[in-house]
Amino acid sequence: MAGRFDPLTRAAVRGGRTDVPAGRGAAAGSGARERSWTPAGPVDLGLTLGPLRRGPADPTFRTTPDGSVWRTGRTPQGPATLRVSRAGELVHAEAWGPGADWFLEQLPALLGAADDPAAFVPRHRLVHASHRRRPGLRLTRTGLVLESLIPTVLEQKVTADEAYRAWRRLVRQYGEPAPGPAGPDLYVVPAPRTWAMIPSWDWHKAGVDAKRSATIVRAARLANRLEEAAAMDLPEAVRRLEAVPGIGPWTSAETLQRSNGHPDAITTGDLHLPGIIGYALAGDRDTDDAAMLELLAPYAGQRHRAARLVLLAGHTPPRRTPRMPRGDIGRF
């Protein structure tokens, strides 16, 4: 998009309206830019932005007691910090850093303005109840591929705790402090070139095996091509990501759910999801991917939203096997 985003002059936004901000910088702190926006419908900040958080101590994401959400990112214009808060129907955003204008430009998409929840029709009682209890759920669209792809690769075939620990360590070691007043605990993810230059011993210390680190390095070297997937339709975006060795259907779906906000980007190849879907919708905890897709067939075009609502319902099968063993290659 040509030119710098000016929240005082850009008026119309799909899915809501832009309101004149209170000011630039003075009200929000040193170097801040601001934007206020009124969504067309209810938006729950926690539900909508929650999938961007990688564990409770994610150095790129924070929530505060007042309900505000802070996140950082490496935008096409540079690193930035974003704070989003609610005041009634109004959403207010403040941003710092070279990428502040880009973050404010993308605010409606981030909060689901491009999402169409009215297109979703519940076909199961549990899904209907979960949908009714969460009218503010929107599917976020960050427009940034690599920031979701790399932590997803880290989550391949390990426990969540191991992946979150690796993400924290690598972002804090190789990222940079977040612009603005976020404090010392928030960081911006490393640049693609930095990811590609991390030495093998630091991957090892972070508990990341050679296969996952090699996938991340390949992706970082192809960052410009992969970022183009954020503007693609789902099938084309999937092909673009899966052309990289080490990126398969599970990784591409988990990435595109966040970067593209596509309601049909259903995750396959997951250890737990088919059993959860099968147990919730058919009482069968031994469901495989094929059976899960059959159960979700009535939600064609909205299968990711349906799966998300099932997960939010919390109707999971009782555990009957030991947890996945934890491996820590960084100890050796």
Automatic annotation (TrEMBL):
InterPro entries: Alkylbase_DNA_Glycosylase/TA, DNA_glycosylase. Residues 22-31, 45-54 have a biased composition (Low complexity). Residues 1-78 are annotated as: Disordered. It comes from the Bacteria. Keywords: DNA damage, DNA repair. The keyword DNA repair applies. The keyword DNA damage applies. PANTHER family: DNA GLYCOSYLASE (PTHR43003:SF6), DNA-3-METHYLADENINE GLYCOSYLASE (PTHR43003). This is 3-methyladenine DNA glycosylase. It comes from Streptomyces nojiriensis. The lineage of its organism: Bacteria, Bacillati, Actinomycetota, Actinomycetes, Kitasatosporales.
